[in-house]
């Protein structure tokens, strides 16, 4: 049996697209799909080119996963077109939207520790700040960070009175 999202013929692992309180139906996914859905790997748009065909599955759990991946990839013109065409019944649409960020990648610091809005992080490297004319020094604490919702590799915070975007790979949670 192939993966219902990408049609790969490999070993499949069951995955239940949450959240709690929704119809729990396991979908058997290949390792690349599972890793990209759960945020272990960044989404590869080339891997998901089959979604415009598989989004029409009669299985609501497959529809939910297809909708969520298309929503994450909507910067790609083909994904936005598919998302605009996809119709889900009200219950399935509510299920897809309710768990929109459950499977999305989390913001993590350089050590893999999850970050949340309001956390304090410390820079682990000197970072030149483009357009501001200064370098944010290693060891600088950045309190009350904000998460950039569209990109799990970016956070925002104030350094020397300037609001800047910082790559998560250059910070550690304090």
Could you please describe the fold and organization of this structure?
This protein has 174 residues and is of the alpha+beta class. The strands form four sheets. The chain has a three-stranded antiparallel sheet, with no helix packed on it. A three-stranded antiparallel sheet has the order 7-8-9, with no helix packed on it. Strands 1-2 form a two-stranded antiparallel sheet. Helices cover 24% and strands 21% of the residues.
Task: Identify the notable features of this structure and list them briefly.
174 residues, alpha+beta
Outline the secondary-structure elements.
Elements lengths: L11 E4 L11 E4 H7 L13 H4 L5 H13 L4 H9 L4 H9 L22 E3 L3 E3 L4 E3 L4 E2 L3 E2 L6 E6 L2 E6 L3 E3 L1
Antiparallel strand pairs: 1-2, 3-6, 3-10, 4-5, 7-8, 8-9
Helix pairs in contact: 3-5
Give a brief rundown of this model.
24% of the residues lie in helices and 21% in strands. It has 174 residues and is an alpha+beta fold.
User: Biggest β-sheet: count, sense, barrel?
Assistant: 3 strands, antiparallel
Which sequence of SSEs, written as H and E, runs from N to C? Answer: EEHHHHHEEEEEEEE
Low-confidence stretches: none
Mean pLDDT across residues:
88
What is the CA-atom radius of gyration, in angstroms? 19 Å
Number of strands: 10
Please state roughly what percent of the residues sit in beta strands, choosing from under 5%, 5-15%, 15-25%, 25-35%, 35-45% or over 45%. Answer: 15-25%
Secondary-structure content class: alpha+beta
> Rough shape?
elongated
Helix count equals: 5
Assembly classification = single chain
Termini, distance in Å?
A: 46 Å
State the strand order across the main sheet.
Answer: 6-3-10
